[in-house]
Amino acid sequence: MAKPAARGDRVREIQRILDETYPNPKCALEHRNAWQLLVATILSAQCTDKRVNLVTPGLFRKYPSVADMAAANQDELAQDIRSTGFFNNKAKSLIGAARTIRDNFRGKVPRTMDELLNVPGAARKTANVVLGAAYGIASGVVVDTHVQRIAQRLGLTKNKDPKRIEQDLMKTLPEEKWIAFSHQIILHGRALCVARKPKCAECPLERLCKAKDKTVHNELSSRRSRRPV
Ligand code: SF4
């Protein structure tokens, strides 16, 4: 049937362009190991990666190990991470995560989705970030606000719920692309496909994009596609 083949071709072309535009994409949260990445990811909720990267070096100097964080005073820790927002909840999650990892996983961040989901503060998105970026394990696709928005704009999902979007992406993308794809889309969301007024005229995916809120007129798009290459 022609339709699925055409969709497959379009998805492959999107991946090709993403690989060309954002080669070797990396997680923007600075970390030296899985524990540091877990901490940074918990702190990144409702906060920019840039802000988290300003806070974590001092935090890891003060609490160098899982055991140090497990023994932290919650009020003091909350002040240490205050600038990342929601600091009381995050401090509670960090101490809970450290204690769970110390007591149930011999001080090592677990390597499976099921185990990680038992760690306080680690929902599916956090677990996917840690497994993918720290261990290279493709357990799913990270769906943050950038991936949510851009997967919809590119017509890769019609869903709004992150769990359903992840399922759609896991069905659509080959498993070996799951980790890189979310990093690339996050970079694209920061550089061009921003939430308001995406910079479609500069976007290498523009001819493949079905977004209703594209800022390039269809007329311009079709003129471009008629240009000799
Ligand atoms: S064409 Fe515009 S809306 Fe579509 S992916 Fe590119 S920047 Fe985003």
Give the distinct bound molecules. iron/sulfur cluster
Helix and strand string, N-terminal first? HHHHHHHHHHHH
> Radius of gyration from the CA trace?
20 Å
End-to-end span in angstroms? Answer: 29 Å
In short:
The chain has 229 residues and is mainly alpha-helical.
Q: What do these coordinates show?
A:
The structure is a single chain. This protein is an all-alpha fold and 229 residues long. Helix content is 58%, strand content 0%. It contains twelve helices and no strands. The protein has helices at 2-21, 34-43, 49-62, 66-70, 74-80, 87-104, 113-116, 124-135, 145-153, 162-172, 178-191, 218-226. Helix 2 (34-43) packs across helix 3 (49-62) and helix 9 (145-153) packs across helix 11 (178-191). The radius of gyration is 20 Å and the shape is elongated. The chain starts with a helix and ends with a helix. Bound molecules: iron/sulfur cluster. The site of iron/sulfur cluster (SF4) has 14 residues, from helix 9.
